[in-house]
Amino acid sequence: MDIKTLQSLVVDALEDVKAQEIRVFDTTHLTSMFDRIVIASGTSNRQTRALAMSVRDKVKSAGGDIINVEGENTGEWVLVDLGDIVVHIMQPAIRAYYRLEEIWGDKEVKLGAAKRAVGTARKAAQKVARDGSARAPAKKSAATKTAPRKTPAKKVGTKTASKTAPGKTTKQTTAKKTPAKKAPAKKTAASTSAAKKSASR
Predict the structure, then answer these.
(1) Residue 56 contacts by C-beta under 8 Å, 6 or more apart in sequence?
(2) Cα four-point dihedral sign 129, 130, 132, 137
(3) CATH class as words, domain 3-111
(4) Mean pLDDT in each 10-residue stretch from start to end of the chain (201 residues)?
(5) Residue (of 89, 73, 92) closest to 81 by Cα position
(6) Where are the domains of the chain?
(7) How far is the C-alpha of 197 from the C-alpha of 201, rounded, in Å?
(8) By the 8 A CB rule, do 87 and 80 touch?
(9) Max CA distance (Å), the chain
(10) pTM of the full structure
């Protein structure tokens, strides 16, 4: 595995479990045994063990080799040997006492712009994913808002139907009025028969 890739994996694994004061040093000019040394602090035995486990699991899942892990029993100082990189995870008091930075810290490797760019891209992708999931319910609510608009349209249809109903009643009233017009005709027929009777007398 490439040294830069391995270094990024180690730093990511430490950051995942909230390691403090992560520092990376180039040791190629001091020893041929390894190329990098990483020093990080954990606030408790439990956290130092969790940090070591996080580094081991992340490197192993990426296909890297774990040479050895030491110090997990006490948790005060846990060392993870990855071949090209040696990771020292220490509690603050132990770190202050042994001061490994003074031994190996001749050339510090800056966690450069490339790593920051990867971190920024990751955060941006997570934000887009969060925003997309937050917008989805808004679309649903908009859809539900359009549904009541359609319902009044149906109600308008029923209103028009009810408006036509009085038209039918007017037709019925005109139909009722027609027999009323025939009634005078019957009266005229009766009056003519009465007139005939009086004429015959």
Answers:
(1) 66, 69, 80
(2) positive
(3) alpha beta
(4) 92 95 94 94 96 96 95 94 96 96 88 53 62 53 48 47 44 46 49 49 47
(5) 89
(6) 3-111, 112-172
(7) 6
(8) yes
(9) 157
(10) 0.56
